[in-house]
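Assemble and predict.
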Amino acid sequence: MHASAELAGPSRRTRPRDSAASWPLADRIGLGLCWAAGVTLTLLATAIVLYMGVKGISQLHLSYLFQHPTADVDQSKSGGFLDPIEGTLLLTAIGTAIAVPIGTGVALWLVEYGRPAPLARTVESAVEIIAGAPSIVIAVFGLVVFSQPAFAFLSFRATGADAAFGRSFVIAGAAMSLLALPLVVGAVREALLQVPNHLREASLALGKTVGATIRRVLLPAVRPGIATGTALGMGRIIGDTAIVILLLGNTLGTESADGGLPGFRLLRGTGSTLTSYIYGNSPAGEGGAPEKAYAAAFVLLALVIALNVLATRLARGNLSALTGGAAWTR
Amino acid sequence: MDPLMPPPIRRISLEQAPTVVPEPAASNGNGHAAAATRSAASAAAIERMRCDQVTIAYGQKVAVNRVELPIRQGEVLALIGPSGCGKTTLLRSLNRLTELTPSAARGGRISLDGEDVDTLEVTELRRRVSMVFQQPNPFPMTVFDNVAYALRDGASRRPRKPALAEPVEHALRRAGLWDEVKDNLDHPALRLSGGQQQRLCIARALAAQPEVLLMDEPCSALDPVSTTTIEQLILELREQIAVVIVTHNLQQAQRVADHVAFMYLGELVEYGPSEQIFHAPQAQRTRDYVHGAFG
């Protein structure tokens, strides 16, 4: 923010733009490469969006968004993908509901307390390991853990079996939260490190405790960071397939579990998401309905883009409402 | 008492004579009126805080070395000296903000109204000894809430607005900001100008009715007009509370301070009335510094 304010200053406007023609050859080659990389990336993104857009819109019927899917070889009778959309939204909600508070808490602890130092370092490494773990590894691990009979209340337990089913929305959501967690921790940590120290001291100097400072000063100040972390985390959750296939049961429709608390049945049930639906209907899967896969992929892409725009808006809205677009001097 | 202590500090017998050292006649162009109010203020001075043999070290590095200073209500004390001389460290130790630096260790005694600050609850101490920082640092909330935050308990949002309207207005008036912000109390504080932000920070620091106000180069990030406003404010505040100001700016020290402490390499070289430090310094190093030989 400081940088942009400085760049926008008059000095830059009046200074003659130095031409790359006068640069040494190596610099010109470097500039060219950077330029080419940027253009290539933009073209690639445009190509993906356009291709999926054209393919998707041509295949998409509005009715797909509201019809339950059914297993039928005749594609005109196999329905839409209402259930996978539900599954995606529900799983994202569960995953972020777990990851955002915990991730924010971890980041706050790391930056604001971080003692004893060896424990803080261990926590940091743990977060990094989770960040680096492929989701299929997390999924397999989750399956092992949640198949323990003790966790039967999170899915169900077949009569006579000595293991739980280990697949349900809560279980998949918990595993998904691990994907989002490092992104939330990273974004909030970064935001906290941006808050100048004298702001914390100003609050402490008013006779406030560290806890009060965190709640009333730091949390509002890092809200954009939390929003960014949430958006990134949602993107990963929405885009993941491995956990859905292993831990959500990958049933075509959303199925509630039997028995238990009424509100909890759906959470203990199984289902699918847009990603697993696309996988299933792609030429690689068993469905063999690439048209519907394209349509679903388009919806998925639109969902991700919409969420990102929303999160950016929220972050920016909060930021300017609180700060008027200004920031503290460090 | 340390035999190495510079003499001026011992000449001040605080218990017996409130009118410390007779002020030399205002021979400079500093304004007689200001000098007159200054003497009047000094005459009413009551000692609120006192540093006894205060030593502060960051690890092996001694930042403040056996400093003795009285801090009185009714006057402004300026800490001056070149960068790295320990003046900010000394200031921050007065409300135990130095404790936030893990490597910092303090020796000696700092007392507030005769009580050792180490025995006070730190939140209580900081409510009584408030601080304004070098950079304006309003909190990310509205103008009103910035001031109200200091009045509410902990992270609580109560008491609610109506109950706090009066004390918030009072604090903003004391900081000379009320007329400028009274219509925009619900605006984010960070939208104010730099000078207004700093006065908001002063209002916030004053809201909880502190007894001592610490100011760490409060004008160094501000334009001349805002600086003048804040200096005016300091002179008004001095009547009700003790003010300690750290400044790099000798002219500023001369304009606002009743007493000046000159520090160099962690040591208190000379302490005395402003007139003495600037016009008849006793120590050679003080003379060199105020005459611009180094800095």
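The interface with chain A takes residues 95, 97, 100, 122-127, 130-131, 133-137, 139-141, 149-150, 154-155, 187-188, 190-191, 201, 204-205, 208, 214, 221 of chain B (CB under 8 Å).
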